[in-house]
Write a structure and sequence with these properties.
Elements: H1 3-6, H2 26-40, E1 44-50, H3 56-65, E2 71-76, H4 83-93, H5 104-120, E3 124-129, H6 137-146, E4 158-163, H7 166-171, H8 177-180, E5 183-189, H9 194-207, H10 217-227, H11 231-247, H12 255-266, H13 275-300, H14 304-308, H15 313-321
Parallel strand pairs: 1-4, 1-5, 2-3, 3-4
Length: 322
């Protein structure tokens, strides 16, 4: 609804993993370098982890688009599968005929024959498993066994595991130490900081055909506060902000629009940051306390030399007046 109003050619803040909108922060650029380096070598495991919504899938889709034509990719998006079902998914993705068998031997033989033929024709095979933290220990062990398909010189398959931080915990267990030892490239993708968040918003708007800034500086700070720099949450909130600005005939998203959008997206119980006000209030209370303490001390404290003379502060004051 707001595309024409803001002069956009596309919706810039959808949550789909569209590589066109990938923003390469320093850490995203480094993560991509790790993936590309790992893929430049034959065989083995590559591991990419990160919190929910940090852009792992988008990054991987972008990497896959950069692979040469002689690389075939099996993308597994439903990792909640048994070890047999995983083999079937891989065969389906690579269009390997296994005659509907559910035998691990038949599936492995069909896959091995396909990999040997691909290797002989200078083709490489990559299997990418998204949300890999959902794999069972048994299925992960089956994934490890896939790397046993090899020639005397090279592994015949390369596997990219993409998942949430729990995947690291799983791989550190004793049962999976053999798999963990075969990982040749690891990277953990974190959230964006406030400066990166501003650049992220600008980049998505630019890709969608808008060169001007649509979010004020205060609005960006508010967005960071509500999203903690998680790209998926940024997209959800920014989309609602643009809708809110459109509905109220505003040409830019200010912090008031962000706050209202945050209520609609995250609920009415959003936390309000009172830290700034609390600091000033605490400072004022301390100052007032010091003032009262000084007044009280001036009226009740008697220096020792006055006491020896039999004079009080009030008596001294009376004498000085006289």
């Amino acid at each position: 609804m707001y595309k024409a109003y803001f002069g956009l050619s596309d919706l810039p803040f959808t949550i789909g993993p569209n590589p066109k909108y990938l923003y390469l922060s320093d850490q995203h650029r480094e993560a991509m370098a790790h993936l590309l380096y790992g893929l430049s070598e034959q065989g083995g495991f590559i591991l990419l982890t990160g919190e929910v919504g940090t852009g792992k899938t988008t990054l991987c889709r972008s990497v896959l688009q950069q692979l040469p034509e002689n690389v075939e990719v099996a993308l597994i998006l439903n990792p909640r599968a048994s070890s047999i079902e995983l083999l079937q998914y891989i065969c389906d993705e690579l269009k390997i005929n296994y005659h509907g068998s559910d035998s691990a031997k038949v599936l492995n033989d069909a896959l091995n024959a396909y990999l040997l033929e691909a290797y002989a024709n200078d083709r490489r095979v990559v299997v990418m498993i998204d949300e890999a933290q959902q794999l069972s220990i048994e299925t992960l062990e089956q994934v490890r066994l896939l790397t046993n398909l090899e020639t005397n010189k090279d592994k015949l398959m390369q596997i990219i595991l993409v998942g949430q931080p729990e995947l690291n915990e799983m791989l550190s267990s004793k049962n999976l130490r053999q798999l963990s030892q075969r990982i040749k490239s690891r990277y953990h993708l974190g959230e964006l900081d406030e400066q990166q968040l501003g650049a992220y918003i600008k980049n998505r708007l630019r890709v969608a055909g808008c060169e001007r800034q649509l979010f004020t500086h205060k609005a960006v700070k508010q967005i960071f506060k509500f999203t903690n720099g998680v790209p998926r949450l940024i997209n959800v909130l920014c989309d609602r902000c643009l809708m809110g600005a459109y509905a109220t005939d505003k040409t830019m998203v200010d912090h008031h629009v962000v706050r209202q959008a945050a209520k609609e997206v995250f609920g009415n119980d959003i936390e309000v940051d009172h830290s700034g006000w609390l600091k000033w209030i605490s400072f004022a209370v301390v100052i007032i306390g010091l003032i009262f303490a000084s007044i009280w001390g001036a009226r009740h404290y008697q220096p020792e030399w006055l006491s020896k003379l039999g004079l009080s502060n009030s008596a001294q004051a009376t004498q000085s007046k006289n």
